[in-house]
Structures are given as C-alpha cells and as structure tokens.
Fold this sequence. Notes:
Among the domains are: 95-150, no CATH class; 157-304, Beta Barrel (Lipocalin), CATH 2.40.128. It is 37% helix and 23% strand. The protein is built from eight helices and 15 strands. Mean pLDDT is 81; it is low at 8-30 and 257-282.
Amino acid sequence: MRRAIWNLLGIVLLIVFLVPVVQAEEATQNIQNPMGWMNQLEEMTLGTVQPGSLLERLDQFEMLVTGKRRDASLVERLTRLDTVILTNQPQDISLLYKTQALEWALFKEVKSGPLKSRLEQMEQLLFGRIYAGPLTKRLEKLVNQIYPGGVVRGRWVSIPEGLLIRVRMLNELNSKQNHSGDSFQYEAAETVMYNQAIVFPKGMRSVGLLREIKRPGNLGRDAVLKVDFQKLRALDGTPVAADYGAKASEMNSSHTRAVGISTAGMMAFGPGGILFGMVIKGKEKVIPEGSEFYIQVAEPARIYTLIDDRR
Length: 311
C-alpha cells in the first residue's frame, strides 16, 4: 500500500515538473519568426518588403499603420500590428475588414493588391486626393464618409460545411506546361450570402496548389490535373478550408457552370474530396483562365460578416 502511494506521488511530481516545460516549448513554437512576420505584414500592407534593419522597418511600419511607436518587445509589437490589421474584436474591427467593407459599399466587390494602395484608390475616388497620416485614421475618415454614423454593421456567423462558392480561375493550368507544386490564383465569382450576411464577397482572392499532373499515356489514358483549393479567405480575412465535394460536383453537373470545360469530365480524387481532379479526354489539356465552377466549404468556420443595408 505504502509503495503504491509513493509511486502515485512520484507520478504527480513528474507531471507538475513536466507540464510547465511542455507549455514553454509549445509557447516557443507558437512564436513566429520575426523577420518572416515583418515581411508578411509589409507585403500585405505595402506590396513589397521594405529596406533597412528589422527594428528600423518596425518603427516605420508602426508609424504608418497607427501613428505611434510602442514601447514593448519586438514580438509584442508585431503581435499588436497583426491584430490591428487582421483580427476582428467586438468593438474594434480590423483594417482588412474595414477596407473590404468600404470596397463592397463602393463597388459591390472587393479589390486585390496592398491595403495602402486600395485605401488610396478610395480616397482619390471620394475626396479627389490622397491623404497623409496613419492608415487607421485615414480608414476611419472613409468609414465616416460611407457608413451612417461611422458604423459598419456586421455580426459573427457560423457557416456550415458544404456551403457552395462559385469561383473563377485567374491562371491557366496546362497539363503540358505546368508542374506539380505550382500555385495558382482564383477568386469568388459571385458574392456568397449566409443568414442574410455577406461571407465571401465577389472578387475575394485565394491561392491553390496543383498537387499532381499525370501526362497522357499509351492506350488512350487521359491527362489528369489534381488541384487543391486549400483555403479561401472570407470577408474578414479568415482562411476557410475549401474543396471539390459532392455538393459542388452535383451543382456543376446540373448547371454546367464551367467555362470551356465539360462538366462531365470532372471528378474528385482523394479522401474527403481534398483533391480536385479535372479529367479531360485528349492529349494535352487545359483548365483555361476564366473558367468558373463551384467548390464548397470543407469544414465549419466562424466568420465576422457584413450586413449590407443597401442591397
């Protein structure tokens, strides 16, 4: 009995000492590489990585985005900038969300390119000039100009697996010229609403991956392109897993949505429809730029949507 108690005590002590070590290791793994993190934020906001040391770039970027430099660690400053640009909170929506809500109000679709350039395009359109100052203040000025009382009305919505999205290919995929591992761009071809709120606005762009190419073979074997749509970004910037599943296949077959491609030649590969294969009979075949077809949400997601009172 005494031995059992000592064994149990030993296990408890082992857990007490090990848990903080494991948690520390997990926390370390969750910290992004600061240089890569800085690069991502600059590319999203400015379109290019800026010259200079990491700290110089961070100082300049903070001034551009918020108008002030924070007295904190490098990781804390990057985390704050990431939150300001990408994260939606109950009383504080992100720069990306505000930009895309404004574009929707003006154009009924979202644009592509760096956030700063998109903001400048709207300033030029509304005010006839481009302003100076931090991006946060300039976006608030635009929001106050477009939305009554300066309030963008949105709400959190849980979208289900299987929600259909019509997309358009922005690059050609060619069984002769492309290679496995090539990336391609695609966009939402029409706005997707769910529970009377905008989830995927028209023009929202994402990147997919060409997983595999099988070249034509002997005995009339077809060329095969296996395509992974990976994640389609929603209005609030949330990456949502998307694939070519049963609902999308049925919709394509019944509506013949694909442009320049026979929907009878579509089929799914791999478990759960993760891989999407277009099989087109012939020697060397192409999925043309501009082709449109349906894909679907692969797993449920929670999205901060936009309620458009002007529809």
